[in-house]
Design goal:
- This protein has two domains: 5-111 and 186-202, Glycoprotein, Type 4 Pilin; 114-184, Dna Ligase, domain 1.
- It is of the alpha+beta class.
- The chain is globular, with a radius of gyration of 17 Å.
- It has helices spanning 10-30, 43-46, 74-87, 121-127, 157-167, and strands at residues 50-57, 60-66, 103-110, 114-116, 134-139, 142-146, 180-184, 186-193.
- β5 and β6 (142-146) form a beta hairpin.
Length: 203
């Protein structure tokens, strides 16, 4: 069973940041995703949870990848998502070693998805909680999510939803009774500079 946000110890949060940084550093060195290191006796990191990892360079988005549904141990999820955010986000070129000194990494731990039963877009907009909700929309084969952090760029619910639909490949004015909507919250860890003198191998 997934652990609640309140049960995430500071040491576990720091170790997750260590893992994200180490995954990116390993990717720079070997040009591929390295095996997930073994972590014994860390209950919070062994629990299956969904996460997103965000990489920024000079405070600008450089990559963001993650999972919506818990499908593997949290430590493995963060390790693999960190590599994908740095090297496999299709919106960006692969991360380069030259960017390390101006880059940082942050982690979002997602709560389980909560379905929103709405009959109209107006009803959905009334239920959105700006600054709190991450939203997933699905329609046929189109789907996308915005993390709660996106509210900082799109603070108005109507604009938030329009841009989420555009991200999913749908028209910004689109609505259908077949749209499925879920929300979640996110517990944020970091950001941490990728280069900060920290020895991530000690764990």
């Amino acid at each position: 069973m997934a652990l609640s946000h309140s049960m995430m110890l500071t040491s576990d949060a720091e170790l997750l940041l260590d893992l994200a940084v180490a995954s990116i550093e390993a990717g720079i060195v070997c040009g591929a995703c390295a095996p997930v290191p073994a972590l014994n006796g860390r209950e919070a990191l062994a629990a299956h949870r969904a996460s997103f990892v965000t990489v920024r360079v000079n405070e600008q988005l450089r990559g963001c990848c993650g999972t919506i549904h818990a499908q593997r141990p949290l430590a493995a999820d963060v390790w693999l998502n960190a590599w994908e955010a740095a090297f496999a986000d299709p919106r960006f070129a692969p991360f380069s070693g030259a960017e390390r000194h101006t880059a940082d990494v942050g982690i979002s731990l997602l709560s389980p998805l909560e379905p929103l039963c709405v009959a109209s877009e107006a009803e959905l907009l009334e239920q959105l909680r700006p600054g709190v909700d991450g939203i997933v929309i699905d329609h046929d084969r189109a789907g996308a999510t915005f993390l709660p952090a996106v509210w900082r760029q799109l603070p108005e619910p109507e604009q938030f939803l329009k841009h989420l639909k555009r991200k999913a490949g749908l028209p910004m004015q689109f609505w259908s009774p077949r749209i499925q909507v879920h929300r979640y919250t996110a517990y944020c860890i970091g950001p941490r500079p990728i280069v900060d003198g920290r020895d991530t191998s000690r764990h």
